[in-house]
Specification:
- The protein is mostly beta strands.
- It has a domain of 104 residues.
- Helix content is 10%, strand content 46%.
- The chain contains two helices and twelve strands; from the N terminus they run ββααββββββββββ.
- The protein has a four-stranded antiparallel beta sheet, with no helix packed on it. It has a four-stranded antiparallel beta sheet with strand order 5-12-9-6, with no helix packed on it. A two-stranded antiparallel ribbon has the order 1-2.
- Strand 10 and strand 11 form a beta hairpin.
- This is Large ribosomal subunit protein bL21m.
Length: 153
């Protein structure tokens, strides 16, 4: 590669500026569509989401996030609408979209009971637990208008 082309290196992505400009010109059809969806990954679990969706994730986000806090979601593998789709390999670059969620509540699920038994023994043990759940609402899901090259020379 020539030295005249600026390279953008962010979050493990290594794209040239001309390559990203070509992507932005080709997603005009996707941006013109009314509704968008995204396959967002939270703790390596994929969730198909649109704007204003409510999502219950089966783990506790309490140490890092409190109710009312806004989280930016950065791991997206698919972004699309009814007619157009962008597939990441493995992720779509953060410059192409913005996805934010609000933490609504951190609660516990229903009581879960598991019966443990050992082979060739008559004793059975009952183990109960209530797992944490975090409820999120997707407050923003939009495709970027233009290339943001802030922070690169």
């Amino acid at each position: 590669m020539s030295k005249s082309i600026k390279e953008i290196v962010r979050n493990g992505f290594n794209y040239t500026a001309t390559y990203l400009k070509n992507i932005f010109t080709s997603i005009g059809g996707l941006k013109s569509q009314p509704n968008h969806y995204a396959v967002l990954h939270i703790h390596d679990r994929p969730y198909l989401l649109t704007e204003n969706d409510q999502l219950t994730v089966p783990f506790n986000m309490k140490p890092l996030h409190r109710p009312g806090q806004i989280i930016r979601l950065t791991h997206c593998s698919k972004l699309g609408s009814r007619d157009f789709t962008i597939q990441g390999n493995p992720w779509i670059d953060n410059k192409l979209f913005t996805a934010r969620a609000v933490v609504l509540e951190i609660t516990k699920g229903p009581m879960f009971e598991k019966i443990l038994d050992r082979r060739r023994q008559r004793h059975k043990k009952r183990v109960t637990s209530k797992h944490y759940q975090t409820v999120l609402r997707i407050c923003e899901l939009k495709i970027a208008d233009e290339l943001e090259t802030s922070g690169s020379n």
